[in-house]
Design a protein that fits this description.
Layout lengths: L1 E6 L1 H4 L8 H16 L3 E6 L2 H8 L9 H25 L4 E6 L1 H5 L1 H16 L3 E6 L13 H11 L4 E6 L20 E2 L4 H4 L14 H13 L3 E6 L5 H6 L6 E3 L4
Parallel strand pairs: 1-2, 1-5, 2-4, 3-4, 5-7, 6-8
Antiparallel strand pairs: 7-8
Helix pairs in contact: 3-4, 7-9
The structure holds glutamic acid.
Length: 255
């Protein structure tokens, strides 16, 4: 199976902005094991800005463009250093791929990126993808990694896209506010009714939220790819997800 896994800042970092070491170690162990089992894995990782905030000792996430770009430049290094070290322990080789909206919208550049990703997978490497936040201003940015991960899944013709986040999946209502909210385990078609279930943006460290995840589901499903939203608390859930077990919310591909 060719799997694209997206992890959000809320999964990778503590609320301080510093790395959640235990979580990231588990994630790298599980992904390494999936590779050992013969799966091809692409990791779309957020966390550059969040980790830059931690490393620079900033009190809050910067809101201005140069501030975010500077934080991303610092945090992206830390992110790749961490992945290189942890995947290296299991003899897997990581490859950093930083993309912007322009790289995936322009057909020629998209083909270039796709060819590189395919070659990396053929070579047995594990591409780690993020938006190139240091240079991506609003006009040229994809803007969020949920959307970016759906684009990447389409480029590499993935069999499955998994978004690991800080909630178990899509609920019938906001579970933080409504005790009767129920997890929806399967979605066949992201209808307007489903879209209406998305609340606002996510945590203080990341940029996503349910709305961008549902948009990613629409894109992946339209490209014939199943997508799962699951809690990144325990990266071991990836084993069950790949076995097709009911974990989180599965959005079924259009046939
Ligand atoms: N690219 C951003 C980062 O690495 C995160 C974008 C997102 O969370 O959607 O910090």
């Amino acid at each position: 199976m060719r799997i694209v896994v997206k992890v959000g800042t809320s999964t990778l970092a503590h609320s301080t902005g510093h790395l959640n070491i235990r979580r990231v170690e588990e994630l790298c162990r599980v992904l390494s094991d999936l590779k050992n089992a013969g799966h091809q894995v692409v990791l779309v990782s957020s966390g550059a800005i969040g980790m830059g905030v931690g490393k620079l000792g900033l009190k809050t996430r910067p809101t201005d463009m140069p501030g975010k770009q500077a934080a991303a430049a610092v945090g992206q290094c830390e992110l790749m250093y961490t992945y290189d070290k942890l995947f290296g322990e299991y003899n897997h080789t990581v490859a950093q791929v930083l993309l912007t909206g322009e790289d995936v919208e322009n057909p020629e550049r998209r083909l270039n990126a796709t060819n590189t990703l395919s070659r990396l997978l053929e070579l047995g490497a594990l591409p780690v993808i993020n938006e190139n936040d240091t240079v991506a201003t609003h006009e040229i940015a994809v803007g969020d990694n949920d959307t970016l991960s759906a684009i990447v899944a389409e480029c590499v013709s993935a069999d499955l896209l998994v978004l690991l986040t800080d909630i178990d999946g899509l609920y019938t209502a906001d579970p933080h506010k409504d005790k009767n909210a129920k997890l929806i385990s399967r979605v066949e078609g992201v209808t307007d009714e489903i879209l209406a279930l998305a609340g606002g943006a996510g945590s203080s460290l990341g940029t996503g939220g349910m709305a961008t995840k549902l948009r990613a589901a629409q894109m992946a499903n339209a490209a014939g790819i199943d997508m799962v939203i699951a809690n990144g608390d325990a990266p071991e859930v990836l084993y069950d997800i790949i076995d097709g077990k009911a974990v989180g919310t599965r959005f079924l591909a259009e046939k």
